[in-house]
Amino acid sequence: MPALRKKPESRPGTRRSGSRRGTSSEGPVRPPSVVVLESPEPVLEGGRFPIKRLVGDHVEVSVDAIRPGSEPLTASICWMPPGSEETSEALLTAEGNDHYTGTFLVDRPGLWRYGFCAWTDRYGGWIDSLLKWSKAGEDITPDLPAGREILEACRARATDQEYGTLQAAIAAFDSDPREDLLTRLQSPSVREAARRLQPRADLVGPEPWYTAWVDRERAGFAAWYEAFPRSLGPSDRAPASFRQAEERLPEISELGFDVLYLPPIHPIGTTARRGRGNSDAPGPGDPGSPWAVGSAAGGHEAIDPGLGTLEDFQHFRQRAAELGLEIALDLAFQCSPDHPWVHEHPEWFSHRADGSIRYAENPPKRYKDIYPLDFESPDREGLWRALIDLVALWAERGVRIFRVDNPHTKPFDFWERLIREVHERFPDTIFLSEAFTRPKIMYRLARLGFSESYTYFTWRNSSSELREYFTELSSAPLREYFRPMLFVNTPDILSPVLQRLGRPAFEVRAVLAATLSPLWGVYSGYEFLEREGVEGSEEYRDSEKYRVVHRDPSAPGNLRPLLARLNRIRHEEPALRPGSELGFFPVDNAGLLGYYRKPRTPGRPLLVIANVLPERTLESLVSVPLEPLGLAEDSEFRVRDLLTDRIYTWKGRRNYVKLDPGVQVAHILRVEP
Amino acid sequence: MPALRKKPESRPGTRRSGSRRGTSSEGPVRPPSVVVLESPEPVLEGGRFPIKRLVGDHVEVSVDAIRPGSEPLTASICWMPPGSEETSEALLTAEGNDHYTGTFLVDRPGLWRYGFCAWTDRYGGWIDSLLKWSKAGEDITPDLPAGREILEACRARATDQEYGTLQAAIAAFDSDPREDLLTRLQSPSVREAARRLQPRADLVGPEPWYTAWVDRERAGFAAWYEAFPRSLGPSDRAPASFRQAEERLPEISELGFDVLYLPPIHPIGTTARRGRGNSDAPGPGDPGSPWAVGSAAGGHEAIDPGLGTLEDFQHFRQRAAELGLEIALDLAFQCSPDHPWVHEHPEWFSHRADGSIRYAENPPKRYKDIYPLDFESPDREGLWRALIDLVALWAERGVRIFRVDNPHTKPFDFWERLIREVHERFPDTIFLSEAFTRPKIMYRLARLGFSESYTYFTWRNSSSELREYFTELSSAPLREYFRPMLFVNTPDILSPVLQRLGRPAFEVRAVLAATLSPLWGVYSGYEFLEREGVEGSEEYRDSEKYRVVHRDPSAPGNLRPLLARLNRIRHEEPALRPGSELGFFPVDNAGLLGYYRKPRTPGRPLLVIANVLPERTLESLVSVPLEPLGLAEDSEFRVRDLLTDRIYTWKGRRNYVKLDPGVQVAHILRVEP
Fold first, then answer.
1. pTM across the whole model
2. Tens digit of each residue's pLDDT (9 = 90 or more) over A485-509
3. Which of A369, A434, A530, A538 is catalytic?
4. Class of the B215-280+298-333+388-574 domain?
5. Number of A:B CB contacts under 8 A?
6. How far apart are CA A60 and CA A48, in angstroms?
7. Ramachandran assignment for B279, one of left (phi > 0), alpha (psi -120 to 50 degrees), beta (any other)
């Protein structure tokens, strides 16, 4: 349905009832409409938070509209693009049972507003009654003027095409035989024109306005690669500079990643610096953890002198962009004891009774190289302002993706304000929430504005765990605002299944991450099967956080070809794009997981079958979900394995698979036409 | 947990965030708390409508409370009785995953308010950290003063018993060995006292206040009997008066009903009066439909002179009350052409182009004996006021139950205001909504205030229809506000299954209605198996709406014994009281329906198994729901059929039933201890 671009009518005092009203002692207000709107969708917490969408999405909306009595209603969706007060409107489709549905297109990033309207379809009610009276043999002559009057009001507001339709209908009152008149008056074109153009009796809406935050596509579809720039040098003898690291960008680009995420690039403190292997006694060459931000060389606004200058960083960023890699920076809002703020703004930190600043602690551990900021500081406003300005500064410098470190330890309101203010100036900014905490806190951070979120993926390994978790994430209301980012590893998480099972586990976890969500990520080293952990933990032994690592892209048997293929498949297959349907199907052997992805746009569906804890060869019959794939019972169809380019001919629902960890841990099968 | 009776603390500017806030240009407001409350339950549409409860209910509430970081929270429920600003409070129980639950008792009718609070449990966080540091061998001496300070603040606000506990803990700082001190500080009694009494850091709540409308028990538990008083005379030769009808009250009382609902008792118009059999040409003795309200003798405030005077009515009502029958009146807000308002307030009616008043019509039918009121009249306020005053008048006269005719044809706001205003003066008033219309309209009427509602019960006959419908009605959110009233028949609905199948259908539909909901009703004549319908419709042939009917309570084979027994069972069995659990269980034969009722209060559960379309004998194995009934697998147990007093011994899950329509159409089995 084409959109009408107009200001919707409204009348004073007309609004959806908000609460029990007292008897009207407030003077002559127009009474509330008899029409009521209920259950608007999608709406989060009554409109408290925006839903999230991507540029190019058609937002699917629905509402229930009711009124007493038997007259029909017309309902519409109204919307306003970011920063605009101009309203567009489209009529909704009546689906029966008082339910109305429709869509509107969001074609640029920013905060869109939308609201629902409904009004009494006086013309529809009139013509329906007229036809019944006429059929019962009653004289309808006295009833005709009322309908004619409505059509004349419509004609006065009609566009060229509708004008002709309405003009002909109105003329028919004077000229046509009664039967021809009735045929014309009940025609779909006249009814439709009247629905749109008649005076809107009993109008409700479009207030309250709900909001949709619309991101550019990369917020919902991207493959991330995390690398310490100081490790991107020619050797592990010294930290690399940005100029050196630049040379290694093509290697990363070849893997097909879209985003290169760098841990903090700022000066690193020396006081209480952690040494290699997280030791208390750093060696003279130990570079320290980049998350201990700040030194005499500067704070969060500065570049680690070892990496180079701001110009070097910008050169690196430009070169990455040319190779299709957008840079993401880390927002770690904490300070080393050498951060300039420690002296400039002592009030931004918590103090102990003896006046010393509290370092980070998580009993029984103390992190003496890090001072947390006190977000409830007496100079709360100054601190919050400074942090928001920092992000704006980096955005001005061209960085529009931020991975946020531990947002769940700072106030929700801080993030809501920071993201809102940055988005007002830079609506293309993307924020990834690194909150590994309890689910309700993670979800709150997503609702209040984070574009995407780390998940429990690394701790979901069995087929039932994966099925349950991704069913939750892909259902309402989460699917309206929580975009799961699946990192297969991070500098802090080397999951036990990788440590224990090695290569087949690395392979299957990459396939799962790349196909279960449109957002996935790899921390460098994964492709080289690095899996030496601290005994009984999920930490890396000799973590890169405290040293420089050199990796050889030509190392034999590495997973670079698999990562490159997965990223190519993701770019080629609409079924792996945002908004495509995810469903699980039965596999007889519980060691295997089966799911399908079905594109929302035209395109072929995929079936993924994975040996999720690949300790041994598993074989099984699987039950292909014929209905969602549009396949007929017992039909023969071909599937192409996008990982091997092998083609299989399958038939009907039940088909056979065998996955040998030594050969292939998963199928990504495209259903061929 | 005992309730604290107190005003909860609050601090200026502390409230749950309501919408995206601008940067603070409004002066020095206290910043919002870091604590956030989510998903309060039960709440309807964000608090737009009250939930419904009955006097004596323990309202079960829950909420999620989160805050950034790792400090624990304490949450509470606060509530205010009707008309009071005094707040009571009880701590909630932490159930894990940031979820908190609790209850509060509502012990009188009216509008109760309740809200949630949460605050940081500083003491809990402090003692937990202290124990970890101590275990790790760190010196905790510098950390001790902070906890002592909290306990001293608690002591200052403690009651006698808590005072002692706190005093001992504080003294221990000075006197006890370190290990004894820690044992004392982490004891449940000290922790609990601190949770309640410590200064409430980061407090949120209790705003916003949600509301619960609490009714007297009869609004949720009652058996209704509908009878035309004019038919309660010694013969059908003339309409009975109230004085005559009084003589028949014991007959109705014997059946165990709680409410006697009378169709309109007002003067009946003579203009266009409908004759016997709904004829256009009334005979001289035809009494007319009571729903054509108003004549020269008066309108809705008056009593039909044929029935007697107001004093006669009051005498009738008193006599009924003595017999345990409360009178319900009919609110039919429409007028006969002879109603005094037609002349006094012509503006309260719709007019045609020729100036004549529009009568009720539903194309292709016209109801010339009835003028609908125009609720959007230019004198809307005058009309609404007059109608509300009418209800208040009858409430003043002692009537506190109203069955409302066709509420779905009048504005929602009208009913919301009427019910609110009447409830403010007469909180024990009960309104039954007679809205046979689309579901969302019926549910809206229930949400806006109707105490109970007619349902689709008469059109739900098969076991799958009944299971589906009553599962919907007993699930959230409907169970929070929609109280289903199951009438087995009405003057307008003689369902096809009754017409076709006769006695066994009458029996089984009574058993279903009496046991599927705590509210059920019978329109007189049902017990005499009256089932002559208009061919192909669900109307009674020769309807009582247009004539006087005489019924003989001693007629052979009538269902009076069954109705009396059903009502006795309902009064004796806690499982049939409001709030008891309804669940369906599998029965192999789809012609039989099986469900259980499990009391919320102590008492024995019931199993009902019914031959729902009793055309022939059906036998089946049923699968007894052992888990909800608390029965062990393979255990033997006795069930007593409350309809026949027969006792069966059953074993385990699978048991056999046989229901022969000629003998018994249903079991109501009480599981014996």
1. 0.92
2. 999 999 999 999 999 999 999 999 9
3. A434
4. alpha beta
5. 118
6. 19
7. beta
